[in-house]
Amino acid sequence: MFEELEDINSRPEPFEFYTASDLWTDEHTSEQMLKYHLKEDVDLSSRNTDFIDRSVEWIISHFGIGAGTKVADFGCGPGLYTTRLAQKQADVTGIDFSERSIQYAREVATKEGLSIRYVNQNYLEFETDDRFDLMIMIMCDFSVLSPEQRRTMLTKFHRFLKQGGSVLLDVHSLNMFEQREETAVYGINTLDGFWSAKRYYGFVNTFKYEREKVVLDKYTIIEADRTRTIYNWFQCFSPETLEREFVECGFTIEQIFSDVAGKPFDSKGNEFAVVARKM
């Protein structure tokens, strides 16, 4: 038991483990994620509905979205952005790891008579011959990726974009890093049963990596018949460190905002968003 507890409380190297499939493809947790996506008044899996509406209106205005504008949403979830953009006549593609979320998005598109291409795939592995005017990655998805994975995504973005095309994404800031604290928490059926329909014991260890500006929430879920560990990484950026990664992959940062609804940049915010253009 002591060795097991030592393992539960051990600190991995930054981005040593990647467990996205355990979160997005597990039958129970994918159902829970979809449920939180669809809660209209909270910011959990997705932003609240009011914010999404304002965000989409700003995106349409800022990027001149209209009939035939080709847009790709990486990590589209149940289609909260793709549906709204398609309603404005954009030619939309959505990519997401969760089969449950993609199925929901497809059902909405069918119901509303919208022609949206949905791809059920880890976006790190996505390939296409299409070329897009705009690519979006929202809800700080970029921050959960390792440096190597981020470079993979930026390389894909550069290849998939039309010349002069743009990327819009948001990330966690250094303020968020400073506000997080290292903790170790234990409970029964933690997060109100989020991790399993069965009884389980949950351990949550939060680690901070000062040099890399990375935060890890490490979830160890112990059920009667299995033990799982889910690693939720948060890379935190300054505008300068994020710009460096984009420039190295052939982009220029055109503008910085507080969020993907175009709010003016606030250096004290926990997140910020960038618009980058393919050079």
Any overview of this molecule?
With 279 residues, this protein is an alpha/beta fold. It has a domain at 28-174 and 237-278: Rossmann fold. Helices cover 34% and strands 30% of the residues. It has ten helices and eleven strands. The protein has helices at 2-8, 20-24, 27-37, 49-63, 80-87, 99-112, 147-160, 174-179, 190-193, 239-248; strands spanning 70-74, 91-96, 117-120, 132-137, 161-173, 183-188, 201-209, 214-222, 227-237, 251-257, 271-278. Strands 1, 2, 3, 4, 5, 6, 7, 8, 9, 10 and 11 form an eleven-stranded mixed β-sheet that branches. A hairpin with a 4-residue loop joins strand 7 and strand 8 (214-222). The longest helix has 15 residues, at 49-63. 37% of the residues are buried. The model has no long low-confidence stretch (mean pLDDT 95).
Short description, anyone?
Helices cover 34% and strands 30% of the residues. It has 279 residues and is of the alpha/beta class. The protein has a domain at 28-174 and 237-278: 3-Layer(aba) Sandwich (Rossmann fold).
Largest sheet: 11 strands, mixed
CATH class of one domain: Alpha Beta
- CATH architecture annotation of one domain: 3-Layer(aba) Sandwich
What level of helicity do the residues show? 25-40%
Average per-residue pLDDT, rounded, comes to 95
Write out the CATH superfamily name of one domain. Vaccinia Virus protein VP39
* Percentage of residues in DSSP E strands: 25-35%
CA(first)-CA(last) distance: 56 Å
Number of strands: 11
- CATH topology of one domain: the name is Rossmann fold
**Which regions are unreliable across 5 or more consecutive residues at pLDDT < 50?**
none
Gyration radius from CA atoms, angstroms: 19 Å
What order do the helices and strands follow? HHHHEHEHEEHEHEHEEEHEE
The backbone outline, from C-alpha atoms, is globular
Q: Which secondary-structure class do the elements indicate?
A: alpha/beta
